[in-house]
């Protein structure tokens, strides 16, 4: 009797080990399918602060004398490009190393073997591959239309916001007119 229980336990453990190995293999295939997404996420993490910095630099450049502005802009662009070129591969490599222990572990935990097979089948399907090919075109068309409509909806509000910000900062508005002076503070008694 004990031998049958031990044998049943060993067989169950072996089956569970084989299933876990199969899930691990499926997760590895899914991660391979998702490598462009993982790398894209790493690139976005590198580029987002640079984009914000470049926007702020663009505003600061407007305050510089015109004769120094172009040289400074070129230097800033070169420095930003160098940063992205150096940081992107490092972060992409780190993301690919981290994905199995985070993304992969979550897939193993939250999906059954059958679900992982179905997910992998979707990623490898011709329909998904076609969707991935046309998605940028679909997104660009959507973004262009939304920007066109948003421009009509938001231009007046955005201009008003720009004027308020310029007034708060005490800088001239785009039209070149000086903002209204801030009211004088009441004298302390």
Question: Key features?
Answer:
single chain; 189 residues; mainly alpha; elongated
Specify Rg, calculated over alpha carbons: 28 Å
The helix-strand sequence is HHHHH
The class by helix and strand makeup works out as mainly alpha
List low-pLDDT spans: 176-189
Q: What can be said about the biggest beta sheet?
A: none
Amino- and carboxy-terminal Cα gap? 97 Å
Strand content bin: under 5%
Mean pLDDT: 81
Which percent range fits the helix content? over 70%
The shape is elongated
Q: How many H/I helical runs?
A: 5
Number of strands: 0
Q: What features would you describe in this structure?
A:
- This protein has 189 residues and is mostly helical.
- The protein is 85% helix and 0% strand.
- The chain is elongated, with a radius of gyration of 28 Å.
